Amino acid sequence: MSGSFSTFPNIAIRASAGTGKTFQLSNRYISLMNAGASPEQILAVTFTRKAAGEILDRILIRLAKAATSPDKLATLQPHITGPALDRSRCVELLGKLLRHLHRLRVSTLDSFFVQIAGRLTLDLGLPIGWQIAEEIADRRLSADALRMLLSEDIAIQKTFGRQDASPTSEAGILPAEKTFLGRDTQPDWGLGIGGWGLPIPPAFNPQSKIRNPPSEMLNLIRWLSKGEAPRSVIALLDSVATDLYDLARQTDAKAWQSLPRTQPLSSEAFDEAIQRIVAFDFPDGRFTKARDENVDSASRGDWATFLTKGLAKPIAAGEDAYYRKPIEAAVVEAYRPLIHHAQGVLIGRVSHQNEATRRVLDKFDRTCQALKMRHRVLRFDDITRVLAHAVTRDLLNITTQSCPKGPKVRASAVWFSGAKHKRHDSVPGSK
Question: Fewest CB atoms within 10 A around its CB: which of 78, 107, 222, 345?
Fold first, then answer.
């Protein structure tokens, strides 16, 4: 746009749903046209198709009402910048919009990103003829990726046999699929957590000589199922992929390792701590019973029960009474090493589970990449990440004019931040 649009600085509006964001956006759109911008020069994007339709309707209806009603014109005028807005000007702008209706760029963010990626397929390194996957096809691809991972895990096979196959599909993996997943054929689109723009942990780098322990997923399954034999291994892992895969792609691997670790008690220190609390002679039998319950739980390594029963429960919560009777300071001090040990063990288990989950999701992500490349299908969020990866690494050779405060943007923009919107856009076969 020309310099005449310098009166439209970039602005950000933070507001919740129903507070007038669409109203403000339509004001901006009409103001830009009133200042001389053509419809094809203005981009208005939102989260859903419904919202995009509402934006266009709002623009057309407000101009039409202003052109036919003096009262509506008087209501619109204070919100529009640029030349004076009168009835003839409204008719002119409305006619311009209707004549260029096929050129209007009012769409969802997903649709806009798909259009860009479709024109830059080779530059972005995407497979020729790629499409946006239908939801059913995407779910099938994820299930195939899980089965392929399970088929490669020897420990899983020994423990659960061929239970990795879903009831509606054939057991086993086609040789062609295994061949395609050769470690040297993984694409790098900057899409996700394992080679798609973020570094792969050395122990899980396909090019590294270090391999994942064969029991990685087996340990994770045991943690998730709390030691019980799951009815369906693939269903259990599918729940992990469904609930956490997107989160993993949006976060750095270090975030999954952020829980604090504490040094557990040595065998000698543990025995000493047990002996200290056993040595107490309580006049109240309820204290004695509570202490004995804690000793039994600690001896069995049942630290969750230890912290939620007996004297350990109020002490761990910072309380100094049990059944409304005070707990001596010496008892509290004697319990502290065991309480810290129990908390450290439980947090450590969660930490190990988080890290194992992340590593399994890394492997799942790499397998999904390969399958997407083979079948030439992508998700909307894949496209977003591809474009972000390309822009941040300057892979598209986009030139900008520099200025003291950063790149000089020629088109003005308005950003709206509010409540999250569920995406309803679906463009099967979009290119």
Answer: 78
Let me know: does 291 contact 277? Beta carbons within 8 Å: yes
- Residue 77: how many other CB atoms lie within 10 Å: 13
How many whole angstroms separate alpha carbon 407 and alpha carbon 64? 38
Where do the structural domains in the chain lie, given as residue ranges? 3-120+412-417, 132-261+353-389, 267-348
Collapse the DSSP code of 127 into the 3-class scheme (helix H, G, I; strand E, B; otherwise coil) and give the result: coil
Identify which of 194, 148, 155 has the alpha carbon closest to the alpha carbon of residue 358.
Answer: 194
Per-residue pLDDT of the chain (431 residues; tens, 9 = 90+): 444 555 677 877 787 777 888 888 889 999 999 988 888 888 888 888 888 888 889 999 999 999 999 999 999 999 998 888 999 999 999 999 999 888 888 888 899 999 999 998 888 888 899 999 988 888 889 888 888 887 776 555 566 654 443 333 333 333 333 333 333 333 343 443 333 332 333 333 334 333 444 456 777 777 777 656 566 777 778 888 888 988 998 888 899 988 888 889 999 999 999 999 999 999 999 999 999 999 999 999 999 999 999 999 999 999 999 999 999 999 999 999 999 999 999 999 889 888 888 988 998 998 998 899 899 999 998 898 889 888 887 766 554 443 334 333 333 344 444 433 333 333 333 33
What is the CATH code of the structural domain delimited by 3-120+412-417?
3.40.50.300
User: How many degrees, rounded to 5, is the angle at CA 420 between CA 417 and CA 422?
Assistant: 135
d(CA 108, CA 111): 5
Alpha-helical segments (H) within 109-161: 109-119, 121-124, 135-152, 154-160
What is the C-alpha separation between 111 and 384, in angstroms, rounded?
A: 10
211 in helix, strand or coil? coil
Closest Cα to residue 195, out of 142, 137, 253, 246? 253
**Structural contact between residues 188 and 390, judged by C-beta atoms closer than 8 angstroms:** no
